[in-house]
């Protein structure tokens, strides 16, 4: 296991370098002069020149990249054009709201999604199965921003039970995390069902039944445990999907997280912030994939030996 | 299970067999009919929409549903029903064009990757893996951040993140088809690489591609609407459904119909594509089922 862990960790290094190179090149891929963009629309030519010198844009690309890596290591990500705060500070403020939003959404949608999927798999063809699958495909097709607006309309504007948005205690978390989790719960339910159905057809399940084991032992011990292996991988991938969805949901609920910061920065063309956010999101993905792979190796010993 | 007597061999062509299985999936057929109607309505928008998409009626501002305006009017007195019909042109074409572009790129890359293998294959597939690992909307925002907001750039962005799904799918079927007797035979009689790929391998990969086209169009419409909703896609006067929903945000509790009907339009369209895709997949091949 340790050997696998080491190999996997070493394997992420080139990916992280590629990610950093991409976020570094981002500013250079933009149409126009990056110094001019960073200096802002009202800058004089002298200001632009000063920024060019300060950013080292007059040096060769590879030197600039090494500087960029050095700055990254020291969490020196520049300043926001819009607020003049340092980007590190800005991201620090926005990190926790997004963290809570995604973790709570993930938690409920995993539990509900897997439960619906197992229910469907066990009661295949019956009304419980059909009901769950109708719910799942609707959840998959429901625009999350519309769901958010409908919830605000009902529970905040009409009934006055919950705040319309903002980040203030657990009550403000209910609607955003529900909205964000629906699609994930739907995907998990569909996938769990098909994994469950596939395992049910395996010889060892038939053997378990044939030797007279009781139904709940067959379901919980023989079927579910094996069906859950691919489910773990998908759950990890859904984390990435959730981070993407958070961008939209945070906008609906005026949630002061990283997603809304990204949308605002794109609208304002606040490039230092966009650059840092792209790096941060990509970094999170690489890390999530790493954790998923490790989890997978824990549940499935076969992987470790490869 | 089939109606034919035991011992007889099915002489139906694969297409006829597929059609027979698809027809039995009533929900998917119904979804297909709904989509056809939506597409026809979008094409016939100038004929069937009661008003123009931007025609204001200042005597009827924020009016609820009525005989004159079945879905009500917005803050400028524009007829919501007409805007939804006109907006269908935008949402549906964004969905189709972006997925067609992504699908085309994916099919080409998948064919090359699967047929030639080796170094080319590794490079293409690594890049596809990286693209696949990112959530579509984040990639799309990255593209929009580079190219600027607007519906055309949203189409490119969605095309980019649709590509890897098709590349993987086509690569898989190409690998399998490469080993079939008829492809081996064609190669042995000297059919050149390009005609071999296009004439003999490509058709075999198409069924899977068609299923994913349907499923991806739904996702793409959803993503495009989301981007317009957060202000990065279609811009305000446009009757794009996501942009209309964003308009309705300011009138919650005052004029709910502004956001209810465009949302319903998105939901029904995406649901229909998903149901159709599920039905096509089930009719086509049991092995594709796990997704």
Please state roughly what percent of the residues of chain A sit in beta strands, choosing from under 5%, 5-15%, 15-25%, 25-35%, 35-45% or over 45%.
under 5%
Largest sheet of chain B: none
Order of helices and strands of chain A: HHHHHHHHHHHHH
Overall pLDDT of chain B, averaged? 84
Task: Count every helix of chain B, treating DSSP H or I runs of 4 or more residues as helices.
Answer: 11
What is the 3D shape of chain B? elongated
Low-confidence stretches of chain A: none
**Largest interface, per-chain counts?**
A-B, 43 and 41 residues
Percent range of helical residues of chain B: over 70%
Hey, roughly how much beta strand do the residues of chain B contain?
A: under 5%
What does this structure look like?
The complex is a heterodimer of chains A (306) and B (291). Chain A has 13 helices and no strands. Chain A has 306 residues and is mostly helical. Chain A has 2 domains: 11-73, no CATH class; 97-299, MetI-like fold (Orthogonal Bundle). In chain A, helix 5 (87-122) packs antiparallel against helix 10. Chain A is flat and about 85 Å long. The mean pLDDT of chain A is 83. In chain B, helix 2 (26-43) packs across helix 11 (257-284). Chain B has helices at residues 14-23, 26-43, 45-48, 80-116, 118-133, 136-147, 151-178, 181-188, 193-229, 241-248, 257-284. Chain B is mainly α and 291 residues long. Chain B is elongated.
Quick summary:
The complex is a heterodimer of chains A (306) and B (291). By secondary structure, chain A is mainly α.
Task: Note the main attributes of this structure.
heterodimer; A: 306 residues; mainly alpha; 13 helices; flat; B: 291 residues; 11 helices; 71% helix; elongated; disordered C terminus
């Amino acid at each position: 296991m340790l050997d696998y862990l080491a190999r996997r960790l070493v394997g992420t290094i080139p990916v992280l370098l590629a990610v950093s190179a991409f976020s570094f090149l981002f500013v250079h891929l933009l149409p126009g002069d990056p110094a001019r963009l960073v200096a802002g629309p009202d800058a004089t030519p002298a200001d632009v020149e000063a920024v060019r010198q300060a950013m080292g844009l007059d040096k060769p690309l590879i030197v600039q990249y090494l500087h960029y890596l050095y700055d990254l290591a020291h969490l020196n990500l520049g300043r926001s054009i819009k607020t003049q705060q340092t980007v590190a500070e800005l991201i620090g403020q926005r990190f926790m709201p997004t963290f809570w939003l995604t973790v709570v959404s993930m938690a409920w949608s995993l539990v509900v999604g897997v439960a619906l999927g197992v229910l469907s798999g066990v009661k295949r063809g019956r009304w419980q199965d059909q009901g769950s699958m109708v719910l799942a495909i609707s959840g998959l097709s429901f625009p999350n921003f519309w769901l958010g607006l409908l919830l605000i309309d009902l529970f905040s504007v009409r009934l006055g039970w919950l705040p319309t948005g903002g980040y203030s205690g657990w009550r403000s978390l209910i609607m955003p995390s529900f909205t964000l989790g629906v699609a994930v719960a739907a995907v998990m339910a569909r996938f769990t069902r098909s994994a469950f159905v596939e395992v049910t057809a395996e010889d060892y399940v038939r053997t378990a039944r044939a030797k007279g084991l009781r139904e709940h032992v067959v379901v919980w011990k023989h079927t579910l445990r094996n069906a859950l292996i691919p489910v773990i991988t998908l759950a990890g991938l859904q984390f990435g999907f959730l981070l993407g969805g958070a961008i939209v949901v945070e906008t609906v609920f005026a949630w002061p997280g990283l997603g809304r910061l990204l949308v605002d920065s794109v609208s304002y063309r606040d490039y230092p912030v966009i650059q840092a956010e792209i790096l941060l999101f990509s970094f999170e993905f690489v890390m999530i994939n790493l954790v998923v792979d490790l989890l997978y190796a824990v549940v499935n010993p076969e992987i470790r030996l490869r | 299970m089939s109606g034919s007597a035991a011992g007889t061999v099915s002489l139906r062509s694969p297409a006829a067999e597929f059609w027979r299985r698809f027809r039995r999936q009533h929900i998917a057929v119904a979804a297909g009919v709904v989509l056809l109607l939506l597409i026809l309505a979008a094409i016939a928008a100038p004929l069937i929409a009661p008003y123009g998409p931007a025609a204001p009626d200042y005597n009827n501002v924020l009016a609820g549903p009525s005989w004159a305006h079945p879905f009500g009017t917005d803050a400028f007195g524009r007829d919501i029903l007409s805007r939804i019909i006109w907006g269908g042109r935008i949402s549906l074409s964004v969905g189709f064009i972006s997925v067609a572009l992504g699908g085309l790129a994916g099919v080409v890359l998948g064919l090359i990757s699967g047929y030639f293998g080796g170094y080319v294959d590794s490079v293409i597939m690594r890049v596809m893996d990286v693209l696949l690992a990112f959530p579509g909307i984040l990639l799309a925002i990255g593209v929009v951040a580079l190219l600027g907001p607007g519906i055309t750039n949203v189409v490119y962005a969605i095309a980019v993140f649709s590509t890897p799904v098709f590349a993987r799918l086509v690569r898989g079927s190409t690998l399998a088809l490469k080993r079939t007797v008829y492809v081996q035979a064609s190669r042995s009689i000297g059919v050149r690489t390009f005609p071999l790929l296009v004439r003999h391998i490509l058709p075999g990969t198409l069924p899977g591609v068609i299923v994913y086209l349907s499923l991806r169009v739904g996702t793409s419409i959803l993503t495009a609407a989301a981007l317009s909703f957060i202000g990065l896609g279609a811009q305000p006067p446009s009757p794009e459904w996501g942009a209309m929903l964003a308009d309705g945000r300011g009138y919650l509790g005052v004029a709910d119909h502004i956001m209810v009907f465009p949302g319903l339009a998105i939901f029904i369209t995406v649901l229909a594509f998903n149901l159709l895709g599920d039905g096509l997949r089930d009719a086509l091949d049991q092995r594709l089922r796990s997704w």
